[in-house]
UniProtKB/TrEMBL annotation:
It comes from Neobittarella massiliensis (ex Bilen et al. 2018). GO terms for molecular function: cyclic-guanylate-specific phosphodiesterase activity. The chain crosses the membrane at residues 18-36, 284-305. Residues 350-482 form the GGDEF domain. Residues 489-744 form the EAL domain. The keyword Cell cycle does not apply. InterPro entries: Cyclic-di-GMP_PDE-like, EAL_dom, EAL_sf, GGDEF_dom, Nucleotide_cyclase, Rev_trsase/Diguanyl_cyclase. This is GGDEF domain-containing protein. It comes from the Bacteria. Keywords: Membrane, Transmembrane, Transmembrane helix.
Length: 746
């Protein structure tokens, strides 16, 4: 028995020993694993922190570069507009307006040999400012005033092939600090812009850490940091990016990121506490070491809690950085990351399409129904988008009422079909309301032909296509023709001045026939562009362009003078004069003295009163801000012997009010009234307009008349004059003189 007992005890001791050994081994293994895991976790946190800082720094650097590029583009566009300005007062007024619009502290023109005094900067030796000589050499540059840290954006102004002046835009240090200060580091990040030599170009509010950068690093403590610093100096000289962690002199752990801005040799430096992400995790890891000698189960549970906390913290940070706070879905940053992930998985050219969606009139929703209703609308749209995308597709909210999609298809018909289904789903809410209300969402798309290109390119092109959208409710696809159209407009704009000087613009006259006796009662002057190399250029190609660039004012004055020359010749030849109407763009009303050159030309060529009629489109009167100005201008036209007519009458919403407020001599009924002349309702509307005008002693002209039935009806209702192909198309001056000799010969 004793032997068996001893054997049992031995076996029990051996068993306890084994258990103790196992527990000890487990404990040692856990400690080893914990040490190993802690080391790996610290490395992962370090890498994660560096990656996070890198991503945010890249985004900030990209935003700054994009913003600089936008400033240069806007200044380039403004410099082209300035090249056509001649008066210093007009130029100064434009610069002051544009400075406020473009958010520059000042816009001014630097003349050669006058480089001494700058607005808001005082006396500056510009010869010492880099970049200005390059601007006079024809380059767009960005430079800075070193002692003030003011940025100077410079664009040459070319006139007649010479560059004698430079357009400069000033953005102060305070103005630019908001741009470079990161918003993604909970207020703990610090940034500045330096050049390739390490000199500070633009600093944050507190420049001290960057001015003393050499003394920030703790010498002799971290060989890896010293190597990273040396590598940073080489990378900065070569305009390469990098990031590394180091221990500062106050023993704090910091992360330093430097990213090239691709503007001059400038780089963006970002300094962030290394514990921004990992600080809380370090505290819990220390607590875990304090209880490592305890029960393995508690240690295991604690470790699991740590991992869970880390994941929760990481998830929360990702949610803050990549979640739209209103819809709870993807934001612009998340859209970019998801797109890059699609690229990493393999994206064939033409397989995906980026789509831009813009809610039309969204501000009215906020005004009519309240901000919360507007927010609910945006959330409803995003939920609908999510329902209609596949697993390998992306939906995100951009700015305000704008959304982006990335669909896995490049077929336009398929995309349009899916968008139609999406729009129907979005507007399905109206089926449950007493009053039907439909959201109009403008759509633009761009097929991703080069997946490696930055997603911003495809987003911008989709946005451009949306702006150029033609048919309502249909998706506009970006195409090379859009770039060709922009190029064509630039070419036409470049040809304008020479064509004006060479008289490539020719005046045509379309007769106005009086219905009471069938004789010539007047004519409308129309312009045709016949270029010696490009041939005939249609008005639909150049009139909207010149309206946009402002050259329409010069063209109007040119046509007016050609009409004056014609009337003066007729008068000297003894021909009977008939009134000629000349179109005047609404762009003239931006100048309070716009009538002076027209009146001067009338007097120079001795044109009798009432022989020239100034024709204004109805849209000119719709701008409430210039309504009184237009009213006064009509009165001034009459005082100077001009007649005034209202073109396109009836297409707007306030036509009858215009007749009450403005003393016009003639109204021209728009051609759309006569498309359905057989309609009884159309006939009543036309007859009412004619009768009302007669009671107000206003002449009526029906334009666009092409058929005998239209002519017969207008004669029956008492319309005064007809203008249209039923009598004659627009004629050259020589053809016009031959067309109706009894009416114009004396």
């Amino acid at each position: 028995m004793r032997a068996k007992y001893d054997q049992a005890q031995n076996r029990s001791s051996a068993g306890h020993g084994v258990q103790l050994g196992v527990i000890s081994a487990i404990l040692l293994l856990v400690i080893a694993l914990m040490l190993w895991n802690t080391s790996g976790l610290k490395k992962a946190l370090k890498a994660s922190t560096e990656q996070y800082v890198t991503d945010v720094s890249d985004q900030l650097a990209s935003d700054i570069s994009s913003r600089f590029h936008i400033y240069q583009m806007t200044l380039a566009a403004l410099s082209e507009e300035l090249s056509s300005f001649s008066g210093p007062d007009e130029t100064q007024q434009l610069l002051e307006r544009q400075a406020d619009i473009l958010d520059f502290d000042a816009l001014f023109i630097i003349e050669k040999n006058k480089l001494t005094d700058l607005p808001d900067l005082g006396e500056v030796d510009l010869q010492s400012v880099p970049g200005i000589k390059d601007a006079f050499a024809g380059q767009q540059t960005v430079t800075y005033i070193e002692d003030r840290q003011n940025l100077l954006f410079l664009t040459p102004i070319e006139q007649d092939g010479q560059i004698d002046s430079v357009l400069a835009g000033v953005r102060s240090k305070e103005n630019m600090q908001q741009l470079i200060q990161p918003k993604s580091f909970s207020g703990h990040g610090l940034t500045c812009i330096i050049d390739g030599t390490g000199k500070v170009v633009l600093s944050p509010t507190d420049l001290k850490p960057f001015l003393q950068l050499d003394s920030v690093f703790k010498e002799g403590e971290d060989l890896a940091a010293e190597q990273a610093i040396a590598q940073m100096q080489q990378n900065i000289a070569q305009q390469q990016a990098g990031v590394f962690q180091f221990t500062a002199t106050d023993d704090s752990q910091l992360v330093l990121s430097y990213r090239p801005l691709y503007v001059n040799d400038w780089l963006l430096l970002t300094l962030v506490p290394a514990g921004l992400i990992s600080g809380s995790a370090d505290a819990y890891m220390l607590r875990a070491f304090l209880i490592v000698g305890g029960i393995v189960a508690v240690l295991t549970v604690f470790l699991l809690l740590q991992l869970r906390y880390y994941r929760t913290s990481r998830k929360y940070l990702e949610q803050v950085a990549f979640t739209d706070q209103l819809t709870g879905g993807m934001n612009q940053a998340a859209f970019r990351l998801a797109y890059e992930k699609l690229i990493s998985l393999g994206m064939d050219p033409g397989a995906y399409t980026v789509i831009f969606l813009n809610v039309r009139g969204f501000k009215l929703i906020n005004e009519n129904f309240g901000v919360e209703a507007g927010n609910d609308t945006l959330r409803h749209i995003y939920v609908s988008l999510k329902r209609h995308i596949q697993a390998d597709e992306i939906a995100a909210r951009g700015a305000a009422d704008q959304f982006f999609l990335c669909l896995h298809t490049g077929d336009k018909e398929t995309i349009q079909k899916r968008l139609d289904q999406l729009m129907a789903d979005i507007n399905s809410f109206s089926q449950h309301t007493d009053i039907r209300y439909y959201l109009t969402i403008l759509q633009g798309a761009c097929v991703v032909e080069d997946p490696a290109a930055d997603v911003t390119i495809w987003q911008d092109r989709a946005r451009m296509a949306c702006k150029l959208q033609g048919e309502k409710g249909k998706c506009a696809f970006y195409s090379a023709e859009m770039l060709e159209q922009m190029k064509k407009e630039q070419e036409l704009g470049a040809l304008f001045e020479a064509s004006l000087k060479n008289h490539d613009f020719q005046v045509y006259l379309q007769p106005k026939v009086r219905l009471t006796d069938g004789r010539l009662a007047g004519a409308e002057a129309l312009v045709r562009w016949v270029h010696p190399q490009r041939g005939t250029i249609f008005p639909s190609d150049f009139i909207p362009l010149f309206e946009k660039t402002g050259d329409i004012c010069k063209l109007d004055l040119y046509v007016f003078e050609e009409v004056c020359i014609l009337l003066d010749r007729w008068r000297r030849e003894g021909r009977e004069l008939v009134p000629i109407s000349v179109n005047m763009s609404r762009a003239h009303f931006k100048n309070l003295n716009f009538l002076r050159p027209f009146t001067a030309l009338k007097e120079r060529y001795h044109i009798p009163d009432t022989m020239i009629e100034i024709e204004l489109t109805e849209s000119t009167f719709f701008d409430e801000q210039q309504r009184k100005l237009v009213q006064n201008s009509v009165e001034e036209m009459h005082r100077n012997g001009f007649l005034c007519s209202l073109d396109d009458f009836g297409v707007g919403f306030s036509s009858l009010a215009l007749l009450k407020e403005f003393d016009v001599d003639t109204i021209k009924l728009d051609r759309q009234f006569f498309d359905d002349i057989a309609s009884e309702k159309a006939q009543k509307v036309i007859a009412s307009f004619v009768q009302l005008a007669a009671k107000l002693h206003i002449h009526t002209v029906a334009e666009g008349i092409e058929t005998q039935s239209q002519l017969a009806f207008l004669r029956a209702v008492g319309c005064d004059m007809i203008q249209g192909y039923v009598f004659s198309k627009p004629l050259s001056i020589s053809d016009f003189e031959r067309w109706a000799p009894p009416a114009i010969e004396g």
